[in-house]
Design goal:
Layout lengths: L1 H46 L2 H6 L3 E7 L8 E2 L2 E4 L5 E6 L6 E4 L1 H5 L1 E8 L2 E3 L5 E4 L4 E8 L3 E6 L11 E6 L1
Parallel strand pairs: 1-4, 3-11
Antiparallel strand pairs: 1-2, 4-9, 5-8, 6-7, 6-9, 10-11
């Protein structure tokens, strides 16, 4: 029995040592790679953390829903935002008609910090804003998902008359 064990020992022990060393090397390399990945992820998270983003000054963009001549259009009708930046969208309605800022897919692709209209501040998911004649609102948000999104006024006949636009997130 000892002779049989000694034979196996002579054959298997060297390959067992090599296998353990190889396993150790693989484990060490794996752990180093894992550490590098974690450090890079943590740096990316820290750079884009809500605290850092919310400390950014908001880039202001103004859009009018209609105009004083009661033309049915958005001015401008094309808005462009950059993902991960903080924005303050100032909406106003200088016309004598009420209008809607409807862009559900856009609203689903952003994080809304707040919407402020007069003395009311709204937080959470918003898909449509109604602005009555002379109405104003401020929408503070951070675009999250790049894409092109449709904008329109959902009042019957307004979209067909030209009150539509596009919002792009890059």
């Amino acid at each position: 029995m000892n002779l049989l064990f000694a034979g196996f020992y002579k054959i298997l022990y060297p390959s067992l040592i090599v296998g353990v060393r190889s396993l150790r090397r693989v484990t060490v390399v794996f752990l180093l790679l894992l550490c590098l990945i974690c450090v890079n992820v943590e740096e990316a998270i820290a750079a884009n953390s809500p605290d850092n983003i919310l400390k950014q000054p908001a880039t202001e963009v103004t859009i009018s829903l209609g105009n004083s001549a009661n033309e049915l259009r958005f001015e401008p009708d094309h808005l462009e935002f950059e993902s991960g930046k903080r924005y303050l969208l100032r909406l106003n309605n200088p016309s004598q008609l009420k209008h809607y800022f409807t862009a559900k897919d856009f609203a689903d692709s952003i994080w809304t910090q707040k919407i402020q209209a007069g003395k009311v501040e709204v937080k959470g998911a918003i898909h449509e804003l109604e602005l009555k004649p002379g109405g104003e609102a401020e929408w503070v948000f951070i675009p999250m998902k790049p894409g092109n999104y449709n904008l329109h006024c959902s009042i019957s006949g307004h979209t067909e008359a030209g009150m539509s636009g596009e919002i792009a997130i890059r």
